Amino acid sequence: MEEQVDLVGNTFVDHYYHLFDNDRSSLASLYQPSSMLTFEGQKILGVDDISAKLNQLPFDQCRHIISTIDSQSSAGGIVVFVSGSLQLPEEEHHLRFSQMFHLIPTLQGSFFVQNDIFRLNYG
Amino acid sequence: MEEQVDLVGNTFVDHYYHLFDNDRSSLASLYQPSSMLTFEGQKILGVDDISAKLNQLPFDQCRHIISTIDSQSSAGGIVVFVSGSLQLPEEEHHLRFSQMFHLIPTLQGSFFVQNDIFRLNYG
């Protein structure tokens, strides 16, 4: 059971950051009207506003390098906790980040992102 | 609604780390048999084993300093994402950490920790 959870979490993380780094506008397909994103403390509700936020971030090119993925089954879904670094073309140093997702099954047998919280790690 | 969520998240975080730093064995009261903790990649199931793990950590004294708390309502509960630093008496530098909780309401009108994922932030 928990092995299946790890597989879903790892597969989701690969897919999510691949889209983020290569075809960011496609991330909208992973959210729904009930979804929430908190990005550096700013809370955004719903797929439309979340997609707009992600597409308006002040960088075009980026690359996420994943350090750790921890997944657990949770009430009606899977929680996924990611740590890694974000590489931007104009930045010499990588930016460390942590991000969590709560994935909920869809009627189609896939998952969508109900909760998404992103923070850069300073200090 | 989301203001209430922030209030629950902030109150929980204050309570959790106060117990951790002052009366760590009492943290068991916040978990249930279904709870999961992933601590630095080690997955632990159930209040008994979680409590044992927390009480066997290789330090007695510690102090958590909280930097950010992000909370969202989620399927049947609240997700809380925390960043901060951990101060140990024998360590000169603080250790940065991130931690997430999925809180589920109890029949008594309180919350318990269904999911808990902890990671130190390196690099």
Structural commentary:
- The structure is a homodimer of 123-residue chains.
- With 123 residues, chain A is of the alpha+beta class.
- Chain A has one domain: Nuclear Transport Factor 2, Chain: A.
- Chain A has helices spanning 2-22, 47-55, and strands at residues 31-39, 42-45, 63-74, 77-87, 95-105, 111-120.
- Chain A has a 6-stranded mixed β-sheet, covered by helices on one side.
- Chain A binds chain B through residues 2, 36, 38, 41, 43, 67-68, 70, 72-77, 79, 81, 83, 85, 94, 96, 98, 100, 102, 104, 114-115, 117, 119, 121-123, and chain B through 2, 36, 38, 41, 43, 67-68, 70, 72-77, 79, 81, 83, 85, 94, 96, 98, 100, 102, 104, 114-115, 117, 119, 121-123.
Instruction: Kindly report the oligomeric state of this protein.
Output: homodimer
Instruction: Tell me the β content of chain A.
Output: over 45%
Strand order, sheet with most strands of chain A: 2-1-6-5-4-3
Q: What is the ordering of alpha helices and beta strands of chain A?
A: HEEHEEEE
Q: In CATH's first tier, which class of chain A applies?
A: Alpha Beta
The number of helical elements of chain A comes to 2
The tally of beta strands of chain A, per DSSP, is 6
Instruction: State the low-pLDDT regions of chain A, or none.
Output: none
- In angstroms, what separates the terminal alpha carbons of chain A? 37 Å
- CATH architecture call of chain A: Roll
Features:
6-stranded mixed sheet, 123 residues, 2 helices, alpha+beta, globular
